[in-house]
Amino acid sequence: MPATLEVESTLTDRYQTTVPETVRRALRLGKRDRIHYTIRPGGEVVLTRAEVSDGDDPVLSQFLGFLARDIATHPERLQAVDAGLVQRLHSLVGGTDVDLDATLSADDE
């Protein structure tokens, strides 16, 4: 199991702090990068690098970030998809061709 590193920083009178170098390196942070805070019910705060790129759906990005953090934190919760569900889905859409690169029609947008 990898070692856990712990570092501290101090709040200024204006509630500002410098992100310690070890944290900046671990999160690959550079000047003007954004930081994301996840506050858990027990008071624990998880600091991550905010990954936002132009054109991303902000709601989908937050949901995918939530999933990634949850999987990383609780891998024991992952479950295989039930074979019966896979068969049911296949019976509903099996044989349907979908071109993921095709332009959507005006009705679909």
Structural commentary:
The chain is α+β, with helices and mostly antiparallel strands. Helix content is 31%, strand content 9%. It is built from three helices and two strands. It has a two-stranded antiparallel ribbon. Strand 1 and strand 2 form a beta hairpin.
Give the % helix.
25-40%
Largest sheet: 2 strands, antiparallel
- Give the DSSP E fraction (strand runs of 2 or more residues): 5-15%
H/E topology pattern = HEEHH
Spatial gap, N to C terminus: 48 Å
Number of helices: 3
Q: What is the mean pLDDT? A: 87
Structure class? alpha+beta
What does the radius of gyration come to? 21 Å
What characteristic shape results from the CA principal axes? elongated
User: Uncertain runs with pLDDT below 50, 5 residues or more?
Assistant: none
Q: Got a strand count?
A: 2
Strand order of the largest sheet: 1-2
Pick out its properties.
elongated; 109 residues; two-stranded antiparallel sheet; 3 helices; alpha+beta
Concise synopsis of the structure shown:
This protein is of the alpha+beta class and 109 residues long.
What's the SSE blueprint?
Layout: H1 21-27, E1 35-39, E2 45-49, H2 58-73, H3 83-93
Antiparallel strand pairs: 1-2
